[in-house]
UniProtKB/TrEMBL annotation:
Domain of life per record: Bacteria
Principal EC category: transferase
Protein name: 16S rRNA (Uracil(1498)-N(3))-methyltransferase
Entry keyword set: Methyltransferase, Transferase
E.C. number: 2.1.1.193
Keyword Transferase tagged: yes
Length: 245
């Protein structure tokens, strides 16, 4: 079994003794019950990992790690971003969790015209915080050193601008004329996918996205839910671009 991953905020990852405390230290000591000599990985969530073993445990929320190696992963390419329309209930966190575990690089919440869920005011801020916390925890669980960025929620016009700036952009749509499995993909740069809401992408949004260079593509014969389509598409692209090789 691979070593568990914990986050160290504010840098400080180096060869030598590094202290893990606070909520992460409590989780390591009181929940995971790590003991002296066990392997552990510390990360800043931005691509740097410190590898070592537990050197000492103090109380219920503090341990010292003897770090023997620090390495930084290069940013993956092509970079995969999924624009995720806001699903109902907690299915948004499910989408973030599974896309993070699969390997997505960035997630953009999108307030689509047909979204039932609305992010407004304090409720929207809390929902965004949940998405970001979910990405962080899923990144740790899946042993990632570089966690996906979860941006602020965007409007359709802002999404169109993001699509226009991509090296390849697509809208996942059951009526897409071409399969994503055969779409021409760049070997580097930025790939942006749009996942619509339960009610579908509106004709006006499809037109705006097409004008930005993002055409409809289908995944397969079945129609996936908005909370699973991004994960399936990310897995397909990771395989096709060689990032899973």
């Amino acid at each position: 079994m691979t070593a568990p991953v914990f986050v160290v905020e504010g840098g400080g990852l180096r060869v030598g003794t590094v202290t893990l405390d606070g909520p992460e230290g409590r989780h390591a000591v009181s929940v995971r019950r790590l003991r002296v000599g066990e392997e552990i990985v510390l990360t800043d969530g931005a691509g740097t990992g410190a590898y070592g073993t537990v050197a000492a445990v103090e109380g219920k929320d503090r341990l010292d790690v003897a770090v023997t190696e620090v390495r930084t992963e290069p940013e993956p390419t092509p970079r995969i971003t999924v624009v995720q329309a806001l699903p109902k209930g907690d299915r948004g966190e499910l989408a973030v969790e599974t896309m993070t575990e699969t390997g997505v690089d960035a997630i953009v919440p999108w307030q689509a015209a047909r979204c039932i869920t609305q992010w407004k005011g304090e409720r929207g801020a809390k929902a965004l915080a949940k998405w970001r916390a979910t990405a962080r925890e899923a990144g740790k669980q899946s042993r990632r050193l570089r966690f996906p960025e979860v941006t602020d929620a965007l409007s359709a016009r802002q999404v169109a601008a993001l699509l226009a700036d991509a090296d390849f952009a697509a809208v996942l749509h059951e009526e897409g004329g071409e399969p994503l499995a055969t779409a021409p993909l760049p070997s580097e740069g930025r790939i942006v996918l749009v996942v619509g809401p339960e009610g579908g992408v509106s004709p006006q949004e499809l037109t705006a996205f097409a004008e930005a260079g993002a055409w409809p593509y289908r995944l397969g014969r079945s129609v996936l839910r908005t909370s699973t389509a991004g994960t399936a598409a990310t897995a397909l692209l990771l395989g096709r671009t060689g990032r899973w090789s």
